[in-house]
Amino acid sequence: MSTVAVVGTQWGDEGKGKAIDYLATRADMVVRAQGGNNAGHSVVIGGKKYALHLIPSGVLNPSAVNIIGNGVVFDPEGFFEEIAGLEKDGIDTSNIYISDRAHIVFPYHKLLDALSDAAKGKNRVGTTNKGIGPCYMDKVERTGLRMCDMMDDEIFTAKLSAQIDRKNEIITKVYGADAVDKEEMTARYLEYARRLRPYIRDTGVMVYEAVKAGKKVLFEGAQGTMLDIDLGTYPYVTSSHPVSGGFTTGAGVGPQMIEEVVGIVKAYTTRVGAGPFVTEENNEIGDAIREVGHEYGVTTGRPRRCGWLDLVVVRYAARVSGLTGISLMLLDVLDQFETVNICVGYETPQGEIITDFPASLDLLEKCRPVYKELKGWHVPTTGCRDYDELPDEAKAYIREIEDFTGVPVRIISVGPDREQTMVRGELF
Ligand code: GDP
Ligand code: IMO
Ligand code: MG
């Protein structure tokens, strides 16, 4: 297949970075289509760890072209920090292009992110404070600034000046906080504009032409299905569309240009930030998963909430993104358990069993997981390099996932390193 989209199926941090890097070794182009530097994708190559936020994970493959598409919200400050870090590690960053239609994140977005989330009190979402929600708000309100505005100093200054004035009204009058410094910010962002111009392109044309020419194009998802603004656990979600449909608007190409959709599934479930989580194990089981899986946020360092694999969630993700394959990650983290649970339904307070993920969080909060208990394998899998080498109980676990979701498990990962990966059949 020439084009593959990689989608998070849970609440993010499923191991997309590792899976994308693995597939990107063969890619001609890697495209980010949504989100911003709220993402934290870790890739480990030969024991060395890289953390990517805004830059596509394809940057670690020297021959891939990396695209930051129109659906991304772009933070110049974060971008240059990331570039500096990668260059320090000797990574070539010359092959990156940014859409002229991508919206720009400014410091007032980050400030408003923190102020508005804190003001929600006990209902706070627990955002990453990267200004993602406020930047998408401006986009939808039709007041945002886009990368193309950076091409002309005069236009950029006029638009930014009007926005800073509006935002300062909100910052000071609604939240009683200190206004942002207009002159300092304008000067700094004019300098960013000068540095960014060489990266700015109509990237939709580049993606379209690459697909038409039969190049291998990888669409890199950030976040996960349950954080989707429409389909996730609203309002405890992000502000973009991390499902496969979001990649076509966010990359600027039609849906027929995506041939395969691979869902990244963590062998258990984690979540950072607030919101219901039916299979959460807020106890020694969750702690054991967190310690062995190093479940701490790449972007914010927060400990992740941990629990058993929720197949109601994964099957929902399979439906809404049209998954054609699954990449099962972090299977090795379950090596430690004598028995493992998988959630195959939710029991409502009325005793009804539901298997379709509900819209209402009021209902979800009252649901209890219906578990199927499976025998654990209780031996290390980190050294396995072929599906046949996996213990029978691990194979049975994989079969349960396939049977429940109706989607074949094509990739299995048993450690953070590129090498610790098994593939069943050619994928890309
Ligand atoms: P992403 O946001 O979906 O890219 O995922 P993160 O990078 O935030 O979190 C996944 C974490 O799991 C990272 O620390 C990876 O290095 C690590 N990881 C990925 N695959 C595996 C695996 O199969 N086994 C183990 N033990 N760690 C893995
Ligand atoms: P990757 O790409 C996990 C969560 C935040 C918060 C909610 C809204 O690494 O999987 P935002 O800053 O986006 O407005 O926060 O979404 N969140 C993520 N959780 N992985 C991510 O990205 C996330 N990006 C945002 O914790 O609950
Ligand atoms: Mg992450």
How does this model look, in words?
- It contains twelve helices and 20 strands.
- It is α/β, with parallel strands linked by helices and 428 residues long.
- A hairpin with a 2-residue loop joins strand 3 and strand 4.
- The radius of gyration is 21 Å and the shape is globular.
- The termini are close together.
- The structure holds guanosine-5'-diphosphate (GDP), 6-O-phosphoryl inosine monophosphate and magnesium ion.
Summarize the SSE layout with pairings.
Elements: E1 3-8, H1 16-24, E2 29-32, E3 41-45, E4 48-52, E5 65-68, E6 73-74, H2 76-88, E7 96-99, E8 103-104, H3 107-119, H4 132-141, H5 153-174, H6 182-196, E9 200-201, H7 203-212, E10 217-220, H8 244-251, E11 260-266, E12 269-271, H9 284-293, E13 305-307, E14 309-310, H10 311-321, E15 325-329, E16 339-347, E17 353-354, H11 361-366, E18 368-375, H12 392-405, E19 409-413, E20 421-423
Bound molecules: guanosine-5'-diphosphate (GDP), 6-O-phosphoryl inosine monophosphate and magnesium ion (MG).
The fraction of residues assigned to DSSP E strands is 15-25%
Determine Rg (CA atoms, Å).
21 Å
Structural class by SSE content: alpha/beta
Strand order across the largest sheet: 9-7-5-2-10-1-11-15-19-20
DSSP E strands, number? 20
Principal-axes geometry comes out as globular
Bound molecules: guanosine-5'-diphosphate, 6-O-phosphoryl inosine monophosphate, magnesium ion
What low-confidence regions span 5 or more consecutive residues with pLDDT below 50?
none
Instruction: Compute the separation of the termini in Å.
Output: 5 Å
Q: What does the main sheet amount to?
A: 10 strands, mixed
Helix content: 25-40%
Query: If helices are DSSP runs of H or I spanning 4 or more residues, what is the number of helices?
Result: 12
